[in-house]
Amino acid sequence: MSTQPPGRIDRRIAIKWILAAGAGALLVEPRWLGAAAAGPAPAPGTQGAGYGVDPDLMTPHKPGDFWPLTFTESDRRLAAALCDSIVPAEGQAPSASAVGVHDFIDEWVSAPYPANREDRTTIMEGFAWIEAESRRRFGSGFAESGGAQRLALCGEAAAGGPGSGFFRRFRDLAASGYFTTPAGLRDIGYVGNVPLAKFDGPPAELVQRLGLADEVVW
């Protein structure tokens, strides 16, 4: 039985959203909403031939140093609320917004590269849709709505309802951002990049289950 308070998004449900339709999650419909969209938000200017050289990622930088950021303050609140709907806090694990995943997504959709610009369109149109849908249903914006209301919208989109293309792409970005942070790596029990005194090989049970017994030499 769940011990979550009423209206609290269950982390197990959120993880199911992340894992659902793994192969299909990489596909984003070019016009995923049609007439339901409230209209695309304007993208920051990145016109022109080419986009210059790649930034120096080894130098410390502040948000917006590489390129103009896309999100307004209201966009940031919406993005943080949606990130936390996908990866909520639980136990010792922080929520996605607590480790800055919404800032990562803002940087990602603001980058001038072709794939990022496509994601910007998908995300910003999705923001317009989910905000309008939340106000239509609940009388408040997504960030101001309760956990149960957010869960209803996200659950429908995760199940293939309206906004599914936007939700899949945002979910992928949120999961990628979270599970590459130190907190996210701890959350899934990742122990890579840690020196080992010895390595005994993969667990025999796992090797048998994968049918690789003939490939592994202990």
What does this 3D model show about the protein?
By secondary structure, the protein is mainly α. It has one domain (11-209). Helices cover 44% and strands 0% of the residues. The chain has helices at 11-19, 73-86, 101-110, 114-138, 147-158, 164-178, 182-187, 204-209. Helix 3 (101-110) crosses helix 6 (164-178) and helix 4 crosses helix 6 (164-178). Residues 1-8 and 21-43 have low confidence and may be disordered.
List the helices and strands and how they pair.
Elements (H helix, E strand, L loop, with lengths): L10 H9 L53 H14 L14 H10 L3 H25 L8 H12 L5 H15 L3 H6 L16 H6 L9
Helix pairs in contact: 2-3, 3-6, 4-6, 5-6
Task: Name the features.
218 residues; mainly alpha; 8 helices; 44% helix
Q: Which percent band covers the strand fraction? A: under 5%
Order of helices and strands: HHHHHHHH
Number of domains: 1
| Helix share bin | 40-55%
Tell me about the largest β-sheet. Answer: none
Which outline best applies? globular
Look at the helices and sheets and give the structural class.
mainly alpha
What is this structure, in a nutshell?
With 218 residues, the protein is mostly helical. The protein has 8 helices and no strands. Helix 2 crosses helix 3, helix 3 (101-110) packs across helix 6 (164-178) and helix 4 crosses helix 6.
